[in-house]
Amino acid sequence: MHLAELNIGRLLAPTDDPRVKDFMDNLDFINGLGKSMPGFVWMMEGSGEPGTGNTEAKIDGDPQFVSNLTVWEDVESLERFVWGTVHRKFYERREEWFEILGGMHFVMWWVPAGHTPTLDEALERLAARERDGD
Question: Which SUPFAM superfamilies does this UniProt record tie to the protein (predicted)?
Answer without folding.
Answer: Dimeric alpha+beta barrel
